[in-house]
């Protein structure tokens, strides 16, 4: 099983690169984001590899980091997500942005991927919510709050304050982060109006 390839870029295709390793050209399928970050033909490159072996073919998928490869594997554990859709998601969102979107239940961010509708995006953030946050770089308190709001477990003033900020045009992840910070400042029992006021101060920083 091939886990990593190091060689020279030979040429590019629409969704793949030919990597020359010791005179052997490997066709490696990559996300559009990965292809954009690879060097020009003739220059050296290293790719983490996921090898697919089927009865009629062997296919290689390449990634700039092991983290990206791990997310590619995780995405395909979701019903309705195959290699093509997983690559499309990773072409739209960086590994960190994808992990953050899943941690914050940000279905809209995932649904920006071409070919991914609201139902698949919802399955991705729901089924991976306990796995992908390990890659995220957001405040655990914000992740907890986003989960509570999504599951309708958040205190009413907190949920109402987030809803108010979303109605003002802020994204759900931004609003959740601002209100999480406001809740820490105000303490338990804070009223909606106070949370909104503190949340707007956070967003203005």
UniProtKB/TrEMBL annotation:
The keyword Manganese does not apply. It is found in: Cytoplasm. SMART domains: HhH1. It comes from the Bacteria. Residues 1-64 are annotated as: Domain I. Pfam families: HHH_5, RuvA_C, RuvA_N. Signal peptide: none annotated. InterPro entries: DNA_helicase_Holl-junc_RuvA_I (IPR013849), Hlx-hairpin-Hlx_DNA-bd_motif (IPR003583), NA-bd_OB-fold (IPR012340), RuvA (IPR000085), RuvA_2-like (IPR010994), RuvA_C (IPR011114), RuvA_C_sf (IPR036267). Residues 73-92, 108-127 form the Helix-hairpin-helix DNA-binding motif class domain. Keywords: ATP-binding, Cytoplasm, DNA damage, DNA recombination, DNA repair, DNA-binding, Helicase, Hydrolase, Nucleotide-binding. Its main location: cytoplasm. One of its GO terms (molecular function) is DNA helicase activity. Transmembrane segments: none annotated. Residues 156-205 are annotated as: Domain III. SUPFAM superfamilies: DNA helicase RuvA subunit, C-terminal domain, Nucleic acid-binding proteins, RuvA domain 2-like. The RuvA-RuvB-RuvC complex processes Holliday junction (HJ) DNA during genetic recombination and DNA repair, while the RuvA-RuvB complex plays an important role in the rescue of blocked DNA replication forks via replication fork reversal (RFR). RuvA specifically binds to HJ cruciform DNA, conferring on it an open structure. The RuvB hexamer acts as an ATP-dependent pump, pulling dsDNA into and through the RuvAB complex. HJ branch migration allows RuvC to scan DNA until it finds its consensus sequence, where it cleaves and resolves the cruciform DNA. Has three domains with a flexible linker between the domains II and III and assumes an 'L' shape. Domain III is highly mobile and contacts RuvB. Homotetramer. Forms an RuvA(8)-RuvB(12)-Holliday junction (HJ) complex. HJ DNA is sandwiched between 2 RuvA tetramers; dsDNA enters through RuvA and exits via RuvB. An RuvB hexamer assembles on each DNA strand where it exits the tetramer. Each RuvB hexamer is contacted by two RuvA subunits (via domain III) on 2 adjacent RuvB subunits; this complex drives branch migration. In the full resolvosome a probable DNA-RuvA(4)-RuvB(12)-RuvC(2) complex forms which resolves the HJ. Belongs to the RuvA family. This is Holliday junction branch migration complex subunit RuvA. It comes from Bradyrhizobium yuanmingense. The lineage of its organism: Bacteria, Pseudomonadati, Pseudomonadota, Alphaproteobacteria, Hyphomicrobiales. The gene is ruvA.
